[in-house]
Amino acid sequence: MTGYKRVLLKLSGEVFGGGQVGLDLDVINAIAAEIAEVARCGIQVAIVVGGGNFFRGAELQQRGMERARADYMGMLGTVMNCLALQDLIEKHGVETRVQTAITMGQVAEPYIPRRAIRHLEKGRVVIFGAGAGMPFFSTDTVSAQRALEARCEVMLMGKQGVDGVYDSDPKTNPNAVMYDTLTYDEFLSRDLRVADASAISMARDNNLEIVFFNLSTPGNIARAVRGEKIGTTVSR
Ligand code: UDP
């Protein structure tokens, strides 16, 4: 078993809300404890946080809002998740820094890639918020970009209550089958919806390995970081 030294962990907003709108602090605290434990073992952890538990631009657009403005609301939602996660990780005794792609000096550092890498080298968990700072993007795509720029070895996609990538939605189809491994091209050609196609194609173009795994299973973050076979691996 190899194990990684620097990882990018993507936490979707769904996780933060425990499936609801807003924050489920018990759920976040359990994840924060696992992240702190991994960081204490010397693994460098960068995190991209989603915001679907507050707002998704596409949904607000369907309800009549202008898309770009709705997307900015979505990005601001991710920052609230970042601050909650920061608070709880630090309560477990590990230093963190939040960096946002939309500048808001009172609450977070701006996104400065070289500084983020320096924080990681010092053992601080770096939490990236506000997506790319640009409408029409998703936090999945940002995860691939941050993983590449911060030179992470793998992108770990933590999902709420789902073990990996399935051939159809396991929440509605009891016969859905989970894939152990997929190539980037298989993922894209099968039109699997668990991550954005743009994130997968960016990973493919730069040969960044992706692991989809279930965050709801205790200990899974450590397992994923150790390189144990869990969930679905997407690679070349
Ligand atoms: N968003 C955006 N640009 C980005 C990242 C996010 O406009 O670079 C907006 C978009 O409206 C999205 C929302 O923020 O719906 C929340 O992000 P996302 O849906 O990726 O969160 P998740 O699904 O992971 O909870």
TrEMBL record:
It catalyses: UMP + ATP = UDP + ADP. Inhibited by UTP. GO terms for molecular function: UMP kinase activity. It holds the Pfam family AA_kinase. It is found in: Cytoplasm. Keywords: ATP-binding, Cytoplasm, Kinase, Nucleotide-binding, Pyrimidine biosynthesis, Transferase. SUPFAM superfamilies: Carbamate kinase-like (SSF53633). CDD domains: AAK_UMPK-PyrH-Ec. Residues 5-214 form the Aspartate/glutamate/uridylate kinase domain. Catalyzes the reversible phosphorylation of UMP to UDP. Belongs to the UMP kinase family. Homohexamer. This is Uridylate kinase. The lineage of its organism: Bacteria, Bacillati, Actinomycetota, Actinomycetes, Propionibacteriales.
